[in-house]
Amino acid sequence: MKGIRKITPYVPGEQPNYSDMIKLNTNENPYPPSPKVAESLKKFDVERLKRYSSIDNLSLKKALSAKHNLSPDHFLIGNGSDEVLAFCFLAFFNSSDPILFPDITYGFYKVWADLFQIPFKEVPLNNNFELVEEDYTQLNGGIIIANPNAPTGLFKPLEEIEHLLKDNQDVIVIIDEAYIDFAGQSAISLLDRYPNLIIIRTFSKANSLAGLRVGYAIGNPAYIQIAENIKSSFNPYSVDMLAEDLATAAVEDEAYYAGITKDICETRDWFSKNIEKSGFSSLVSKTNFVLITHPDLIIKELYLYLEAHNIFVRYFPKIKRLNNYLRISIGTQKEMEAVNQLLNRFVKETKNS
Ligand SMILES: *Cc1c(COP(=O)(O)O)cnc(C)c1O
């Protein structure tokens, strides 16, 4: 057949749905959204749905504006940060020079670049899975990195992000901060000095709202307007009314989210330390997941063993360097104790066989 497009789609982690499973494969939050979100849902007047949703998402932008201390025109809202990324790729990556991103990072960057036929170059992380900023001084048509990175969990300090921005002032540098709440230091403070900076955030991870589909970009208003134009040319109502209401309620309950984020970080650090007793090691994570390995195990077997016990984690068979690693999202303390026990048991059973 003529005229048909062949593409390689993004493959997300599975979404199985058993009542007794422990689901640690897509970095979702194990805790529920803020009670304020539940309240806002209950109060929602269903009759409002007969109208189209807001085009400018001003109520959510105002809440974000108060939270980040920036005027509302610094924000672009979308149906999940994946969609926001798509708008930004279309708006900012139009050079014939390749955009740069790490060889091991969020899988969607390559998918969007392919889909939109944007030339790209994957820049290898070093042997410790670290981003080497000197590798980003080469000619490019833009840069996108996740900080902290996924699936490594590693965080680049702000000074190094600043070098990257300084060295690439004639292109847009996108910093995807999907996991920043678990790490601290956001690049937002650099916005004043570097108009080429665009930051991407999501409600899916730290805000426990993966199913709601809301994400946003933060940037210089002139550039944000260009991305808004892309959104208006594609799906002006991409954020539905209910999603805007509930996300706004989430932004307004910082105290609740600070609490669950702290719990997740404590569980993460507990887990990383305790798996060492059975010989595992992990990269230093500033996210809600850990990338683990073991010198004496075939990790794929462990992956299947966990799955057989209804514990779902992420294995990346297509990424060569991650062949012997598993990415495990951080669940509740109780869930992680169960996983730790099972890891321990697997090591013992493998030794005895
Ligand atoms: C999860 C994730 C996203 C996607 O978030 P959504 O808002 O759910 O689309 C984007 N970037 C990174 C690095 C992620 O890990």
UniProtKB/TrEMBL annotation:
Catalytic activity entry: L-histidinol phosphate + 2-oxoglutarate = 3-(imidazol-4-yl)-2-oxopropyl phosphate + L-glutamate
Molecular function per GO: histidinol-phosphate transaminase activity; pyridoxal phosphate binding
Modified residues (N6-(pyridoxal phosphate)lysine): K205
Cofactor: pyridoxal 5'-phosphate
Pathway it works in: Amino-acid biosynthesis; L-histidine biosynthesis; L-histidine from 5-phospho-alpha-D-ribose 1-diphosphate: step 7/9
Domain Aminotransferase class I/classII large: 20-339
Enzyme Commission designation: 2.6.1.9
InterPro entries to which the protein is assigned, alphabetical: Aminotransferase_I/II_large, HisP_aminotrans, PyrdxlP-dep_Trfase, PyrdxlP-dep_Trfase_major, PyrdxlP-dep_Trfase_small
GO terms, biological process: L-histidine biosynthetic process
Keywords associated with the record: Amino-acid biosynthesis, Aminotransferase, Histidine biosynthesis, Pyridoxal phosphate, Transferase
Pfam families, A to Z: Aminotran_1_2
Taxonomic superkingdom: Bacteria
Coiled-coil parts of chain: none
Record PANTHER family: HISTIDINOL-PHOSPHATE AMINOTRANSFERASE, HISTIDINOL-PHOSPHATE AMINOTRANSFERASE-RELATED
Family: Belongs to the class-II pyridoxal-phosphate-dependent aminotransferase family. Histidinol-phosphate aminotransferase subfamily.
Subunit structure: Homodimer.
NCBIfam families: hisC
Name assigned to this protein: Histidinol-phosphate aminotransferase
Species for this entry: Candidatus Enterococcus palustris
Upper lineage: Bacteria, Bacillati, Bacillota, Bacilli, Lactobacillales
Name of the gene encoding the protein in the UniProt record: hisC
